[in-house]
Amino acid sequence: MSAPLEIEDLVAGYGRVTVLHGLSMTAGTSGNVGLFGPNGHGKTTLLRAMSGLVRPSAGRIRFFGEDVTHLSPQAIVGRGLIHVPQGNRLFPDLSIAECLALGAWTRRARAVEDENRERAAAIFPRLAERWRQPVRTLSGGERQMVSIATGLMGAPRLLVLDEPTLGLSPRLKEELAEAVRAVSAAGVPLVIVDEDVELLLGLAKHLFLVNHGTIGAEIRPGETIGHDAIMAMYFGH
Amino acid sequence: MQPLAEIVFGGLFQGSLYAMMGVGLALVWTTIGVFNFAHGALMMLGAYLAWTLTAAGLPLALALPAAILLMGGAGWLLQAGVVRPLIGRPNLVLAVVITTLAAGSLVENGVLQAFGPRSKQLPPLVEGSMTIGPIGVSLHQLAIILATPVVLLALWLFLTRTRLGLALRAVAQNEDSAQLVGLNVAALYGLAFALSASLAGLAGIFIGGYRFMSPAMGGDPLLKALIVVVFGGISSISGPIFAAYLIGFLEAFSNYAFGLYWTPAILFAVLISTLMVRPEGLFAPRMGKLA
User: Fold this and answer.
1) What is the ipTM of this complex?
2) Is residue B282 part of a domain?
3) B33 dihedral zone (left: phi>0; alpha: psi -120 to 50; beta)
4) Which member of B167, B176, B184 has the closest CB to residue A102?
5) What are the pLDDT digits (tens) for A3-19?
6) Cβ separation of A85 and B177 shorter than 8 Å?
């Protein structure tokens, strides 16, 4: 079986600004994948290219062996590559229940909608209490939960989380990390970007440092790495 | 008693037409964030399509739905031709003002070429008239007053109770997130324009049944729809509907109390003073939403 995610020499950016300079990685064969690296070095652009929001100018992205480089976001979601963007505002005036219903928009996802809704409610009991509440009235942490729950509704074969704990208080961060662990335990493979190194190390055994628009370092499963070594990679020597 | 009844009836009638026009404009604004200045031309095109079909011998009961369907297609084409290519470009709002004005002018002059300037009239929805209390009313106008809330209610139910309506409301709120749950944003934009054009076409058929039609007939309704939408708040569907009836009543009252020539000035005075107090519009919620 081919790897869930194979990226070859990916070049992408915005207008005249190139952010990714020939990035290559193969991921997902051995559990969750963590991406880390300094801000502004291409993590989010990489995720946006994977989900089709950014058109790569060169290179290739394969999802379970299928070339998805130039597919529309819609087609990519339909194949089960679900991207939960950073600081997602979601749909401010829709209720939680409506957001989740939209999450199951694709045909694949609709077939298992009820099942996934129960799963989401079990992982995020806080949301189940306020099903009819508009998203704009929720706190940042709760909105992040709706965002991930909406992603789960898409029946992900690979769930991509961009900074799920960004800007949250330590207590909420822990609650969300717990939820992300529960999502992973439910058998959904993750690609996760987060600045919280402890969270990454706890969730993913396969880590990539994204630096200057390429992969700066790869930590394979089995290789042990400490918090300090990662910090050193962030800041360079 | 009689003046009051005239004002109420006139207000309901004008309000219905304004609501029908304004809601289409608001639908496009809330989903795509652009103003469609071809909306008046679409209204006129709807009337002319229905006229062509009735002139070919079709009864209005068939010509009306057929014209509305065709208008849906016209709205879709307009979107694909002059709006979609500009999405994602800087200055989208201004560019679309220009492209839709151009498209509207093209449609208007195309109709002028094809049909000539001579005025035409559609058969009324319902023939005849009746007396309600102290006033006599035409059944056509009464039908419009009764049909409009039904159409608006159907639109509201579609937007709030169906999955497709949910998707339309979502794409209005966050395009990126809409794409990331797998919505076909281009198709939803097309749908918004198609619905909007159909509503405009229906308004055109309403108007064509009691007033003479001409290729330039869309100008004044477009202006009124703009007033209604700005007055009610451009970020929702319900705001313009309330505003449409309010303006309809205001207009009917002003026509009676101050006369026809003063009415536009009074309308604008009310609009401007409202906007000075509530720049977001009279019924606007704090954030953009469709229903």
Assistant:
1) 0.89
2) no
3) left
4) B167
5) 899 999 999 998 889 99
6) yes
